């Protein structure tokens, strides 16, 4: 039985990947600061303290690396921004450092990254993996995160980095936030692009990257049809039974409420999934209506 070790396993994407891998007959364990907290098999690690149970890496046939502090969980103070960066870079650095000591190394290392690499707002231009990074805070975080993760390749471990877009799920992530107010409305102009992907498809994409030996390097992990914030919010409101008001939440109000983080929701990226589709990956929910129907109208 193949052993898959996951960092960030208790999160939205990690839980979905765990479920999918177990359905496929693989044994899954998580790396966690509090392994005793979960019924899932777990090993201890603390990236901030540079500690990791060595048994975890000897146990693992492959690693899926998702860990990182939530980008939208708290207002971006200087301290919070440092936490967002450190939680990603420290984890990757610790895994690299400890993997050097392991004789029979895992065969694959599949890491999360983010479309934030391209910058807060790339307009309606379609962006690809080879495009340059943005110059804002999140772009800098992703650039350093990827640089730390790419060192794993030096250990002759097949390494894949998936630049994840906006994950659509019923009970978490961006969709829950968009529909939280009593009335759904576009953010700012509503014309900014959202490169979305259904939760089940992002889980399947990680497993696809894990199982296919020919996949390595950088891939955008987004659905095939990005849409504007206004289109996504309107459709989500209709299918969830929420009232929709076609008057954008003013940008200045968002900036007051969110500070620098407002740039993340007022900007957007239209990101290409072409490279991943070229590996033979097929979306189950490639159409927005189909994806939202699955999330909101399941009985």
TrEMBL record:
Coiled-coil intervals, chain numbering: none
Ranges for domain DUF1731: 249-295
UniProt cross-references to Gene3D superfamilies, sorted A to Z: NAD(P)-binding Rossmann-like Domain (3.40.50.720)
Domain NAD-dependent epimerase/dehydratase, first and last residues per copy: 4-214
Database matches in InterPro entries: DUF1731, Epimerase_deHydtase, NAD(P)-bd_dom_sf, SDR39U1
Protein family per UniProt: Belongs to the NAD(P)-dependent epimerase/dehydratase family. SDR39U1 subfamily.
UniProt-recorded name of the protein: TIGR01777 family protein
Taxonomic source organism: Cyclobacterium xiamenense
Origin organism lineage: Bacteria, Pseudomonadati, Bacteroidota, Cytophagia, Cytophagales
């Amino acid at each position: 039985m193949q052993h898959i070790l996951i960092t960030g396993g208790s999160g939205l994407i990690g839980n979905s990947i765990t479920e999918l891998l177990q359905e496929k007959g693989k044994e899954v364990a998580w790396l966690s600061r509090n392994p005793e907290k979960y019924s899932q098999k777990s090993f201890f690690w603390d990236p901030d303290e540079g500690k990791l149970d060595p048994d975890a890496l000897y146990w693992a046939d492959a690693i899926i690396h998702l860990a990182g502090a939530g980008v939208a969980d708290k207002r971006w103070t200087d301290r919070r921004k440092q936490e967002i960066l450190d939680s990603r870079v420290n984890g990757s650095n610790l895994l690299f450092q400890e993997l050097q000591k392991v004789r029979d190394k895992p065969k694959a290392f599949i890491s999360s990254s983010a479309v934030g690499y391209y910058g807060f707002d790339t307009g309606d231009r379609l962006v690809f993996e080879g495009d340059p990074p943005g110059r804002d805070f999140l772009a800098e975080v992703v650039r350093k995160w990827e640089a730390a993760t790419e060192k794993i390749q030096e250990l002759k471990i097949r390494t894949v980095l998936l630049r994840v877009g906006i994950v659509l799920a019923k009970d978490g992530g961006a969709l829950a936030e968009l529909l939280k107010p009593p009335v759904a409305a576009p953010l700012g102009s509503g014309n900014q692009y959202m490169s979305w992907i259904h939760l089940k498809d992002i889980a399947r994409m990680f497993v696809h990257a894990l199982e296919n030996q020919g996949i390595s390097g950088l891939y955008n992990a987004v659905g095939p049809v990005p849409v504007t914030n206004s289109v996504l919010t309107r459709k989500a409101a209709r299918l969830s039974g929420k009232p929709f008001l076609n008057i954008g939440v003013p940008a200045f109000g968002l900036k007051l409420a969110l500070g620098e983080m407002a740039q993340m929701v007022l900007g957007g990226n239209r990101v290409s999934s072409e490279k991943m589709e070229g590996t033979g990956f097929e979306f189950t929910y490639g159409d927005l209506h189909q994806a939202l129907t699955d999330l909101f109208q399941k009985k």
